[in-house]
Structures are given as structure tokens and as C-alpha cells.
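User: I need a structural model of Cyclic nucleotide-binding/CBS domain-containing protein from Halorubellus litoreus for a docking pre-check later this week. Nothing fancy, just the predicted C-alpha cells so I can convert them on my end. Input:
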Amino acid sequence: MFVESVMTTPVETIDADATMTDALHEMLEAKVGSLVVTTGTPPRKTGIVTDADVKTALHDFEHPLEDASVLERFMFLLRRPITGAPVREYMSSPLVTVQPDATLSEAVATMNDHEIKHLVVTKHMRLEGILTSSDVAAAHDDIVSEARESSTRRPHWER
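Assistant: Understood. Predicted C-alpha cells for Cyclic nucleotide-binding/CBS domain-containing protein:
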């Protein structure tokens, strides 16, 4: 099985100078767990920001509130954006990429080697898609189902 058959498209992007609040809103709106970070015109891929990075930004933002009550924290967060920090401060860079024609096994090995859950798919420097650990898990389920089906079928010579 190849990366291109299970990757997610299209890929959502965000400018490196956008805030982490912008990143959170974009992720929620697009229902994704990561955004490829770009800079310049034309946009160049410079990194990736994930839901884990947003959690880190939230923690960094709330850190001064650790002695506050739950209600005080809630009221504070309602009045302010999570953080005005730019995405570039939290993104992972450089990007780890894979080709769409790579096997799923190769992609998983790359993800494991780099200890990442989001792998950007590029072809000739163009952004093609993103492969996530969730995509891999879903593909694994499909592979197992297909294997079970084929093992329960009788060979054609026994029919």
C-alpha cells in the first residue's frame, strides 16, 4: 500500500507570523490536527504546527495562572485569546517529508525514526498531502479486513 492511497488532502496551511490563536481557530474550523507553516511570497513550506503545539502554547499562556481558581482561569481565558505568540515560535522545523509513491511501511519507519505523528507528503517540492498516525491506523484496519476476507475465500480450484 502506498502513501498516496491513504494520505489526507487537501493540506491546510498557515503563515509563520500568524498567532497560535489563529492556528487553533484554523484547526478547529478545518477539523484537522496540524497545519503546514509557510513563509514568503510565493509561500515556502517551513514547518508544521500540530494540536500538541497548541496545547503547549495554552500551557505556556496559563502558566502564570497556576495559583488561580478554576473560575478565575476560565474568566481570564474568555476575555483573551489563548496567546498572541507567533506560530513560528511553536512550529517544528525543518519539515520531515515523504513522497506519495513511498510505501506505507517506509512512511511509518520515517515517522518512528523522527518520533512524529504528522508526515508531510511532497512531490517535486509541491505539497501533495499529509499522512497522520490516524491515517495509518485506518489503513491498517483496511489491510487486516482484506486479509481476513481473502483467507476465508476458497481457492478457485476448490469451487
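Before docking, keep this in mind: Residues 3-158 form a domain with the CBS-domain fold (CATH 3.10.580.10).
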